[in-house]
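Comment thread on ticket #2218

A.B. wrote:
> Attaching the input chain for the structure job we discussed in standup.
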Amino acid sequence: MDFDRYTVTLLVLRDDAPEFTPEVEDALQDAHMAHIADLAASGRLLAAGPLLDPASPFRGLSILNVGVDEALALKDEDPAVKAGKYRIIALPWMLPGGAMAFSPARFPRSMADVADED
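C.D. wrote:
> Ran it. Output below, let me know if you need it in another format.
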């Protein structure tokens, strides 16, 4: 049997995350979204989105078609990770070949892009 291999990454709110002003928080969110959009445009990010349980430290999930080390390196370049807000967990994921298919999608580059789509 053939298997497809991906890397799943979890965006985790750090316990020791610094406090940001609302303006800095907004700018970090837009920079975070632009980073995700760039990864998708490069073909390495297949899917990504927020996790919606506000009581959980897990804030987002991504699926990449690269190995764990490369996924960590790419996700560590996220401006919100660099600013110390989040950390990344990367997990190898294997499933039967063809069990899941990903279609190209346009990822929003900012919260303004999200508002424009509503």
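A.B. wrote:
> Thanks. Noting for the ticket: The CA atoms of residues 68 and 82 lie 18 Å apart.
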